[in-house]
Design a protein that fits this description.
The chain is an alpha/beta fold. It has 20 helices and twelve strands.
Length: about 575
């Protein structure tokens, strides 16, 4: 069957070895539970035939005590089995989430882009939950079902062979009908997870863009848009729920018809004296147990289609090999901070043209190397390649003469302080964000970095200073404040190489000048690579690289480029006027 839970087993790399002890105890508890449940109908038959019908009070008390003991044993074994099943299922879910998180942490920007952030969130939460639910059902129902079905069939035959013809009809009918329903559930189950991805994506986009939505008064449009994707999800969920309802109704109908058939066949025989009343009651109980076991086993397949789809989505993440790997024997950096980019070529998957083509760059310690160019020229991509957030298609990036592919991520992170184009802060205190790259940094070091980044004044004005809690993404502070905190975070880490990717764009002119002056004094021996749109930010740089359509058009100082680079000249003219060009 396509929804077979066997498709989930490869997810557990070592099979059930991590959970062997709990599973063994669980199977033992379920065996005790099954034996107790199977013993009860036999006790009931004896109680009716030898106690109630004969009026034997002693027999009633003795067998009543046995039934009470068997019931208590069953209850205790069932509780223990459910607890152990839930424990193992929760551990499986926790292990899968940990594995997914660890794998996603190793992804480069390329893999994250391929899957999409909403889909990765769904796979780590909802998809794992579906697999976890099926694991719980497998452990608590599917293991007991064989014991109950086989044991019940043997004991039912012991009560009366002719009545067993009902079982020969009811069991195949139940399997056929339920199997047909489950087969029809596979399509909606597969579509369900994709619809959840879509809803998560739209919701995430609307939450992130709430200010833009309100600024353009597009609430009604976005409400309708969310309503459409939500209705689409609801439609698939209703289809899936309808089949689940068919499952329950069919199971009840089959069990009821089977019980009626047993009474229709056994009733006349009881009246004729060919069958004892207790045996008929016991057979009905065994019939219920057998059909219940069969339906319990089949119910696993009811949950399996959706869990199977979820499992395949989880495996797609776990089986994805990150484009950026770790070397077996990492090289060691000398710590000077020299950067070389040679013949860099990079293209995003599916793009017709590469973003960068044959790019060369040289950045020396104690110097500021600026990168400028029009939107889409590849500036941020170049910075990401230097920090090895992306992997080159061709060429090489060297830190202190060592190819970044020969370095582990820890060495690169220790050498490079990146202030990204979109300054992102994590939920938590200001101090926690500043210590992100240096967990053991002292408060004096934090305040020193804040002073350089021109952020100390507004942090002191916060209610709790360094202990002030920031919202996720830094939404509780302004864009300029986020950028200054991000600059301070890089300074606290104290690397040898600083990558400022348009990190001053949200600052006013005076603050921009103050930050750059403080950085020039503080980072005298460090290597600085600055990506900027404003000419005023990079005109005093030791070297300016001009990118145009992914290639280096020219390189030199501000004055040299005004003579040799049409692209740079046009950028200067658009920002500072013709007088600056002809000066």
């Amino acid at each position: 069957m396509n929804g077979s839970p066997a498709a989930l087993y490869p997810l557990l790399r070592n099979g059930m070895r991590p959970y062997t002890r709990e599973v063994a105890m669980l199977v033992g508890c379920q065996l005790v539970q099954a034996l107790a449940m199977l013993y009860l109908p036999t006790l009931t038959a004896g109680l009716v035939d030898n106690g109630i019908l004969r009026g034997d009070t002693g027999y009633l008390l003795g067998h009543g005590g046995l039934m009470l003991a068997a019931t208590l044993v069953q209850v205790a074994a069932t509780a223990a089995a459910v607890y152990l099943g839930a424990r193992v299922a929760m551990r499986i879910g926790a292990d899968l989430r940990a594995a997914l998180f660890a794998r996603v942490q190793r992804f480069s920007v390329r893999e994250v882009h391929e899957f999409g952030a909403p889909s990765l969130l769904t796979r780590t939460t909802n998809d794992v939950q579906q697999v976890q639910l099926l694991a719980f059902i497998l452990l608590t129902l599917a293991v007991t079902a064989p014991f109950m079905a086989i044991g019940g069939l043997v004991l039912a035959l012991g009560q009366d062979v002719p009545l067993s013809v009902v079982l020969l009809v009811a069991i195949p009918v139940a399997i056929g009908v339920i199997g047909l329903i489950i087969n029809r559930m596979i399509g909606p189950a597969r579509a369900m997870q994709g619809r959840i991805d879509t809803v998560n994506g739209v919701l995430r986009e609307q939450i992130m863009g709430i200010r833009v939505i309100r600024a353009f008064v597009r609430e009604d449009h976005e409400r309708e848009r969310f309503g459409r994707v939500s209705a689409d999800l609801r439609g698939v969920a209703v289809r899936l729920g309808r089949y689940q309802a068919y499952f329950g109704a069919s199971a009840t109908l089959i069990a009821t018809l089977a019980s009626v058939a047993v009474l229709a066949i056994g009733g006349p025989r009881v009246a004729a004296g060919g069958l004892q009343v207790g045996s008929l009651i016991a057979f009905l109980n065994y019939l219920a147990q057998i059909l219940g076991a069969v339906l319990a086993a089949m119910s696993v397949f009811m949950f399996a289609p959706r869990a199977r789809v979820s499992a395949s989505r989880i495996r797609a993440v776990l089986d994805t090999v990150p484009a950026i790997g770790e070397p077996e024997t990492p090289a060691v950096l000398s710590g000077t901070g020299r950067v070389r980019v040679r013949g860099a070529r990079f293209g995003y998957p599916g793009a017709e043209e590469p973003v960068l083509r044959g790019v060369d760059l040289r950045a020396e310690p104690g110097e500021v190397t600026a990168v400028v160019g029009s939107t889409g020229s590849g500036k941020t991509t170049l910075v990401n390649l230097i920090a090895r957030l992306l992997e080159l298609d061709e060429g090489e990036v060297l830190l202190d003469g060592v190819d970044v592919r020969a370095l582990d991520r820890a060495s690169i992170a220790a050498a490079i302080g990146l202030v990204p184009q979109r300054a992102y802060l994590f939920s938590g205190t200001v101090a926690r964000n500043l210590r992100f790259g240096a967990p053991g940094a002292s408060e004096d070091r934090l305040w020193h970095a804040l002073e350089i980044a021109q952020a100390a004044e507004f942090v002191r004005a916060m209610p709790d200073g360094l202990d002030t809690v920031l919202g996720q993404g830094g939404t509780t502070v302004s864009g300029g404040q986020r950028q200054r905190l991000a600059i301070a975070r890089a300074l606290v880490a104290n690397p040898r190489i600083y990558l400022f990717d348009d990190a001053f764009s949200a600052l006013d002119g005076a603050t921009d000048a103050a930050v750059r002056a403080a950085l020039a004094e503080e980072l005298g021996d460090a290597t600085q690579i600055v990506v900027a749109q404003r000419v005023s930010t990079i005109r005093s740089a030791d070297r300016i690289i001009v990118l145009d359509a992914g290639a280096v058009e020219a390189a030199g100082t501000h004055e040299e480029l005004l003579e040799t680079s049409p692209t740079y000249t046009e950028i200067v003219r658009s920002q500072l006027g013709t007088e600056e060009v002809i000066r």
